[in-house]
Every structure is written in structure tokens, then in C-alpha cells.
Specification:
Elements: E1 11-13, E2 24-26, E3 29-33, E4 36-40, E5 71-72, E6 93-94, E7 102-108, E8 116-124, E9 135-149, E10 152-161, E11 174-176, E12 181-183
């Protein structure tokens, strides 16, 4: 290999049952997912054509860049003084408002797909209650609207609710953590 060649994913390995001293060329397809490389496509045949060998750059076998893992929005607009935004799998989200805008002890069940779901604890204020008379209760957190914002991959919306009180996820009412506003704006 000369100094201008890219590293090759082609390996010369002994084939089981091959004549002594013979080596088989293995054309490898390398897939890097979460830092785990998988090699496929090896052939024990000594007749693999040289044209079928694969050349892979070194970056193809490294872990995906951190920018490929979405963050939870970012600190902007009315959430500029919040917490958890701009982080991956934050354990605490605070929108900067009153205690009902805080979810703590979040454990994420999923992260990185079209939406992320977790459970945590937040102040629940029911009908006839005030923030001062609310209570800490389990809440379900949903981060969704995966896409880019300011060129970075992130969940651009988040909402939490209390299923034990008959609440359900509502994709039309959320915190837009790309623009820094509430939707719908009340």
C-alpha cells in the first residue's frame, strides 16, 4: 500500500480446509453502530476476485460522531434559563418557570428514535389546586419532533403528563425547544 492509499477492510485470512500455505481474500463490509464494528461478507472460496474487495476509510469504522446522537433542544427563548436542554438524556428538565415546569429523576426508556420516552417526577396541580398545594407525582416525558435546529440534531419538542390522572400525550401542546416557545402559545 502506498502512502496515499486509504486503509483497507480486506483481510487475508486462512480458509478452513484450504491447502496449506493458501490464504483466502475476505471482502468485508464494516458497519459501525454505537462503536461496535461488525464484519460481514467473508468467503472461504480461494476464487474471490480482486475486484470484489472493499476499501473503507478509517472514519467508517469509528463510532458515530456525537452530533449523530440527538440532544433535547437547547436553551433559547422562554427556556433560556432552564435546565436539561442541550443535553443527551437529561435526568432533569426545567423550563425556567414555576415548579410544574420541573421534571426530575428522569429515567429514559428510549432515546435516539423518532421520539424518546422517559419517566420522572413533577409537581401535579389538579383542578382546584394551586402550585403551593400541588404534589410530587410520577410523570411521563416525551421528547419528539426529531430534526435539526441550528444545524444540530435534536428533539425540538417536549411534553410531560400524568397518566394516573387520565392525561395522555398531546402532540399539539408542547414546549418548542428549538424556537423557545410554548405551542399553542397561551
Amino acid at each position: 500500500m502506498n502512502s496515499t492509499s486509504t486503509p483497507s477492510a480486506v483481510a487475508s485470512i486462512p480458509a478452513s480446509g484450504a491447502a496449506p500455505g493458501r490464504r483466502t481474500i475476505c471482502a468485508a463490509a464494516v458497519i459501525a453502530v454505537a462503536g461496535i464494528a461488525t464484519v460481514t461478507g467473508c468467503s472461504a472460496s480461494p476464487h474471490v476476485a480482486a475486484a470484489s474487495t472493499a476499501t473503507v476509510t478509517a472514519s467508517a469504522v469509528s463510532a458515530p460522531p456525537a452530533s449523530a446522537i440527538p440532544a433535547l433542544g437547547h436553551l433559547v427563548g422562554v427556556f433560556a434559563h432552564g435546565a436539561g436542554f442541550g443535553q443527551v438524556k437529561p435526568s432533569r428538565i426545567f423550563n425556567g418557570g414555576d415548579p410544574t415546569g420541573l421534571v426530575s429523576s428522569i429515567v429514559w426508556k428510549s432515546w435516539g428514535g423518532a421520539s424518546a420516552v422517559g419517566t420522572g417526577t413533577s409537581d401535579y396541580v389538579g383542578s382546584g389546586q394551586t402550585v403551593a398545594t400541588g404534589s410530587q407525582e410520577p410523570a411521563t416525558v416525551v421528547a419528539f419532533n426529531l430534526g435539526t435546529c441550528d444545524g444540530k440534531l435534536m428533539y425540538r419538542a417536549v411534553e410531560w403528563y400524568f397518566p394516573q390522572h387520565g392525561q395522555a400525550f398531546n402532540a399539539s401542546q408542547y414546549e418548542n425547544i428549538c424556537a423557545g416557545s410554548y405551542v399553542p402559545n397561551s
